[in-house]
Amino acid sequence: MHTISRRLVQKISVPIFRTSTHATKLISTQNQHRYEDKDPETKLFGKLLIGAASAGLLATYFDEKKKVDCKVAQTSGTFKDGLPEYTIEEVSKHNTQESRIWVTYKEGVYDITDFVPGHPGGDQILMAAGSSVEPFWVLYGIHENQHVYDILEKYRIGNLDKHDAQTFTQNMEDPYSSDPKRHPVLKPASVKPFNAEPPPSLLVENFITPKELFYVRNHLPVPNIDAEQYKLEIEIEGAKKTVSLSLDDLKKMPKKTITATIMCAGNRRSEMVKVKTVKGLNWGPAAVANATWTGVPLRDVLKNAGLDQFDDKYKHVQFEAEDVDATGKNYGASIPIWKAIDERGDVLLAYEMNGAPLPRDHGYPVRVIVPGVVGARNVKWLAKIVISEHESTSHWQQNDYKGFSPCTDWEDADFTKSPAIQELPVTSAICKPYDGDTIDVVDGKILIKGYAWSGGGQKIVRVDVSADGGKTWHVANVDAQDSSEPPRHWSWTLWSANIPVDNKSKTVGFADIMVKAVDSCYNTQPENFEHIWNIRGVLGNAYHKIKVNLKQ
Amino acid sequence: MHTISRRLVQKISVPIFRTSTHATKLISTQNQHRYEDKDPETKLFGKLLIGAASAGLLATYFDEKKKVDCKVAQTSGTFKDGLPEYTIEEVSKHNTQESRIWVTYKEGVYDITDFVPGHPGGDQILMAAGSSVEPFWVLYGIHENQHVYDILEKYRIGNLDKHDAQTFTQNMEDPYSSDPKRHPVLKPASVKPFNAEPPPSLLVENFITPKELFYVRNHLPVPNIDAEQYKLEIEIEGAKKTVSLSLDDLKKMPKKTITATIMCAGNRRSEMVKVKTVKGLNWGPAAVANATWTGVPLRDVLKNAGLDQFDDKYKHVQFEAEDVDATGKNYGASIPIWKAIDERGDVLLAYEMNGAPLPRDHGYPVRVIVPGVVGARNVKWLAKIVISEHESTSHWQQNDYKGFSPCTDWEDADFTKSPAIQELPVTSAICKPYDGDTIDVVDGKILIKGYAWSGGGQKIVRVDVSADGGKTWHVANVDAQDSSEPPRHWSWTLWSANIPVDNKSKTVGFADIMVKAVDSCYNTQPENFEHIWNIRGVLGNAYHKIKVNLKQ
């Protein structure tokens, strides 16, 4: 069915979605286009894409301050009278700086040469040079945004030859078409890939978050895995021995349940961007949740497989997932080996969430739970485990999820110098009321609710709340906290505070509320986002501050 | 030689310094008065004293803002013409609120009834009721201060009968008389007990701190222990089996050396007191140092002694020391059992510091090194280890070394609700230049040096320095850091930064320098002391800020 020229096939031959090289079988491969990946140019483009594969990285300044709505009226890519027509063949010749960079979008032809330097996703845009941007926009749905359409249309130079346009667009496949249905209460920060959080006020209603309310952080389309066919591969790098385990094999082992909070490194990014623009999804304070996880301790799996005896040179445990990016690279991450083999590390290969099989969005059939550690290492749809001398080489381990100084910009960010985020620092947030709400003053007091959590198994030992911008503080009540001791305290703490407000003067009528938590290492939160600002907008754990109107 | 009446002996029969009940022998007992301790009243007073035994607690508002100088001219306690004379017998009758509280100091008699509620050390002052304050002032040298003399003299009501005065004062013994000689470079925050730190600028000259420069934090007189006679007792609470080990027994076991920083919980208190008065020694930023420690892993000692198999109910390892307070209570502290038995916890029973036997001030012959954990748990002069269901009941574990909210004052501080400090939070300090210094600007830049450290085995991953009050930041260079990975990174990081200053305008001529560190959990420091202020002035880890004058 590929009616476009061979040359163009080569040009767009970056595989959108291909079958994993792992033993595991993906069953949702219907209608997938599997292009041959032998063109050296394509491989170069593939490499370029590695740096772009995070949807977070592509969540640019275009849409930082508002949630993406894919249903906005689209005015880009429609046929425009009075513009010249170009064939695909002609467009394909404009694929270098010298020949100018042309791309197509539906029926539109665009010369984006002058936009390339300003593309928030960097050079990766060159993958579409001389061809259509659509496969990439389909994969990184963040582009499907009125603001992006408007920018693109500024570079319009013509219309695509009508016959070519029809052929071309018919071949566009949506790799997200088999994503699961989500509960409408989840508010998307991006739809493709799906990233969404619940309203914060709902979050603090339950110590254990119902699965429908648990934030979703997907980097790529959700793989559709047949549990019957599921195989987990385990290997020691450089050794010949590998082990392959089915889901049943895992379920036959003694199971363990832990309660653990998972948090996205970008949680509360929407507060940090107020200081200065960052690259990343515009998360509110609800990219965090708490659940029970049932599965097999990773250390037992390794031991059982005879893989617990290995050389001291091995320092990391790498996880590879079933979800694949546009270059065919699997999502991956790693953790230090001590965390994996320590009984008190409590790392699980989990197959249940809140007592039921994992939902597809949360890693069905098997995910890693690395309690106390950033969500990105809690790899979903686990396919392979590698015991290695090195960290995962994946984009998400090497070139994402790292912290930088406020003085570091993209130009001088050296990702090799900054450690991959593992344990997360102490944080807290007010979930009720919201910033700008008008709330009742009852007996001179207002009721505030929220959560606090710290990574590394540290317990929250105190939450301080102020209603006068930090002049006076009140110790919040602990509403829910589990009894495990640090450094194996994995769950969040839900708190509330009924604090007095000075509302005698009717002209005031508002309160500056802020919260900060202290963990069992007595670490506490930084006061402002200003001095912890970083290019990726991660680790946003400053005091949470809101302003509310008071009603007597 | 006790010529004072039996009744009075009972009254002052709180032992100042008594032989340990442990197997270990103290040899510096010459001229010590050992009073019998059978009077129920004395026991009550003993209990009261438990709460006062920390010299830190008695380092009151009297002398918070200046170093104690014991050589100030003393005008208190001298005979004053025209006042009535009282015998010891008469004074001793005034030992209750009803009969009024009288005390003596040298030749002076004082009615301190109205001062008791305001005594910063609390009710403990009642131990001296109807008797002399001198034994307590000798033990807690912090009282030997002109400001305290002046306050006392306000309550003067008479002179002590001349004969009684002579007899009484001759029996005052200085339990600190056998303390070791210290290097004069150590700047005392208190002399009895000895607490001192070196000039910060010297501290950052060496990654390994020479023993003479290592800060000294003593709560009580330094015991003088004969290593030949040394015995370490180990028991499981409630079990009959105990083990006794000599120093030779310990030395015969496989030894291990670790490099670890120890920090006092009160380090940098002198910055916190600028917000509001606290109780505690006025430490600068040099109550921290780094050394190599050689000894036997605690877990090996327990295992070797057959004490590694015990019920899960045991949660703590208590340490008792040879130094004793005025009630005969030994200094003590405890750590959670996981830290003690974890190989990666690296807890040592150390007998060497920097390759030589421990100096007396640092715990000779054996101390505990609990890396990553507050100095107070690194118990010196170790006498006994108890595996227990409970934390140490010592004053220093229960009623000291705990954090509180800025809103908590002494009246509402509930020590049972706040966890004992163990792992310390991330901190950093500028050691060179000092606040107020005038420094050279070379090629538009100034050179700043300091340290950074985090407890819990976390490594410093970045130090940010600003010379314009936080408007712009610069990443400091790491000058010295060991290669161990978190969470077993126990040493500090020494850093320097050569940062540009805007000194074009000659009218400016100064720089607001500040530093903050980030650890491997990406925890960072709070910005200001204001919101971390606490009654005991501990955990002072806000940004270190200094102002310097610039010289072109």
TrEMBL record, chains A, B:
Pathway: Energy metabolism; sulfur metabolism; Sulfur metabolism. Keywords: Heme, Iron, Metal-binding, Mitochondrion, Molybdenum, Oxidoreductase. It is found in: Mitochondrion intermembrane space. Residues 83-161 form the Cytochrome b5 heme-binding domain. One of its GO terms (biological process) is sulfur compound metabolic process. It is an enzyme of class 1 (oxidoreductase). This is Sulfite oxidase. It comes from Acanthoscelides obtectus. Gene3D superfamilies: 2.60.40.650, Cytochrome b5-like heme/steroid binding domain (3.10.120.10), Oxidoreductase, molybdopterin-binding domain (3.90.420.10). Its main location: mitochondrion. GO terms for cellular component: mitochondrial intermembrane space. Pfam families: Cyt-b5, Mo-co_dimer, Oxidored_molyb. Its cofactor is Mo-molybdopterin; heme b. Its EC number is 1.8.3.1. GO terms for molecular function: heme binding; molybdenum ion binding; molybdopterin cofactor binding; sulfite oxidase activity.
